[in-house]
Amino acid sequence: MRLRRGFRFAVLGIILAMILSMGVGTLQAAPKKIVIKITHVMDPSHHYQAGALKFKELIEKRTNNRVEVQIYPAAQLGSERAVLEGLQMGTIEMGIITSGALSGFVPEFAILDLGYLFKDNKQAVEVLNGPVGRALVDKMKDAGIRGLALIDCGFRSVYARRPVKTPADLKGMKIRTMENPAHLALFKALGASPLPMAWGELYTALQQGVVDGAENVIDVYYSSKHYEVAKYYSTTNHVYLVVMFMVSERFFQGLPKDIQNAIEECAKEAAEYEHTVFVKNEQEAYKKLRSAGVTITEIKDVTPFQELAKKSWMDVAKAIPNGIENLRAILKE
Hints:
Elements: H1 2-29, E1 34-39, H2 47-62, E2 67-72, H3 80-89, E3 94-98, H4 99-102, H5 121-128, H6 131-140, E4 145-160, E5 174-177, H7 181-189, E6 193-196, H8 202-208, E7 213-216, H9 218-223, E8 232-248, H10 249-253, H11 257-291, E9 295-297, H12 303-309, H13 313-318, H14 323-332
Parallel strand pairs: 1-2, 1-3, 5-6, 8-9
Antiparallel strand pairs: 3-8, 4-7, 4-8
């Protein structure tokens, strides 16, 4: 009797162990969700957010929710430089970032910051998607960052406390710029006095007359409310704003091939969608700014600005790795 009872307990124990092992095996086999943190420095009303949301929608659907995207706008994960450092280390997976910040990590990109290098959006996009652009994007991988897709966001222009119609109007004007050698050289060539300054200090600086003006794309001019203290916007269109979806190379290389493909495809589609949002926002910004009493000067012929800007090209290019070679290749294209 005791033997039978012991046999029963032994059989039950084996069955229970089998059930438990099957359960553990099932849990182990369940695919782990891949989390992508994507960040940018603009507020949630900006088109960067629209692009990030579209990317989230596309990739979560395409991967049957194997990927989860978490969006961090308004520099929640740090400045563009801090985000690029995070991409290098793999602590941040993705970002929507400008080439101005990227040139600190991939110096060759600084050639794209030359003033009046491109005459219009179409030309800029063709060059950046051509041999020179592809070579620059390939160079990013050496820095641990992968460029996924270019977002066409137009040109930066000057806004100020007084109108700018010709280069002579810029003479002696204190213009806030980024800490960017090409931008500094451009405004010096145009006769202005460029003054690098943190973005967060600019509104007060314009209000108090510490600077006379600044420069940016029009939707940023509107969303930052700088029009309240600098009511003249002039379409100088001096520098094409290069913005990209970027991903950590370390993170990317650790992914299955199908997820890598999905990230690349969805980033391209999201970038195209974001451009349509940018165009809409740009048109709305013009309307709202005029209603707010802003004087918008549309400069039809930028040739006088361009001729002066060209004088700064060679000096800047010499200080950039492969700068002269890339400048000549861009001009040839």
